[in-house]
Structure formats: C-alpha cells, structure tokens
C-alpha cells in the first residue's frame, strides 16, 4: 500500500479493516486485531491495517518507532498466539507528519478452499 492509500485509511473512521493504537501496551488487543484482519469475516478480500503510534482520535502519540519496536511487532506473527501464522508486513511510515508503525495484514487465502 502506498502512502496515499494509508493516509486515506488513517484519516477515515476505524472499521473492520482499520485499527488505531497509541502504543503496544496491550498485546492481546493487537493480536485480536491481527487475527480479525487475517480472518476477514466480512469478506472484503482486502488487507486490514493496524496503525500504531496514533490515538483513536487521529492525534499522533509521538512514539519512538525504532528497529527494536518493529522487531517486537514482527514477533507477534510467530509467537504461537495466532494460528495459522498471518501474512503481514510491518513497516515504519511517516503519514501526515506522524511517525507510525504500520501492520498490513493480508486476509487468509486457503488454496484448498478455492475449489
């Protein structure tokens, strides 16, 4: 996803495809959002996006998004709490002047189910 697409999602209301978190203090909530995006129950067939470093009202939380922070987020994928492992991209992005961690979670696609 490019910066323009992400900015549109960031500035829109939270939905079943978009979630905002000010921090990673509640990893359970992060896992829930990632799992929901991967399951894609509304069948959008589009990725879900988790923005970390921004409050629900859209104000920047001014988090330090460094390599260690990004590695911590990446580890959520394979720590055993979400099965099967989701397909996700973890990136540092600056959107609207706010430095964010962005997790793009692809909906689960089962090749056997597509028969």
- Which H/E pattern describes the elements? HEHEHEE
User: Helix count, per DSSP?
Assistant: 3
Question: Widest sheet: strand order?
Answer: 1-2-4-3
Distance between the termini: 29 Å
For the biggest sheet, the summary is: 4 strands, mixed
Overall pLDDT: 90
Strand content: 15-25%
Which keywords apply here?
115 residues; alpha+beta; 3 helices
Provide structural commentary.
With 115 residues, the chain is of the alpha+beta class. The protein has helices spanning 3-11, 27-39, 67-75, and strands at 18-21, 48-52, 88-95, 98-105. It has a four-stranded mixed β-sheet, with helices on both faces. Strand 3 (88-95) and strand 4 form a beta hairpin. The chain is globular.
Topology record:
Layout: H1 3-11, E1 18-21, H2 27-39, E2 48-52, H3 67-75, E3 88-95, E4 98-105
Parallel strand pairs: 1-2
Antiparallel strand pairs: 2-4, 3-4
Provide a compact summary of the structure.
The protein has about 120 residues and is an alpha+beta fold.
């Amino acid at each position: 996803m490019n910066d323009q697409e992400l900015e549109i999602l960031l500035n829109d209301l939270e939905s079943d495809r978009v979630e905002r978190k000010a921090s990673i203090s509640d990893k359970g909530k992060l896992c829930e959002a990632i799992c929901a995006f991967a399951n894609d129950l509304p069948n959008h067939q589009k990725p879900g996006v988790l923005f970390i470093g921004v409050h629900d009202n859209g104000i920047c939380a001014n988090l330090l998004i460094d390599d260690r922070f990004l590695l911590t987020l990446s580890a959520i994928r394979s720590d055993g709490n979400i099965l099967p492992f989701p397909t996700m991209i973890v990136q540092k992005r600056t959107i609207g002047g706010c430095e964010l961690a962005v997790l793009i979670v692809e909906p689960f696609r089962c090749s056997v189910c597509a028969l």
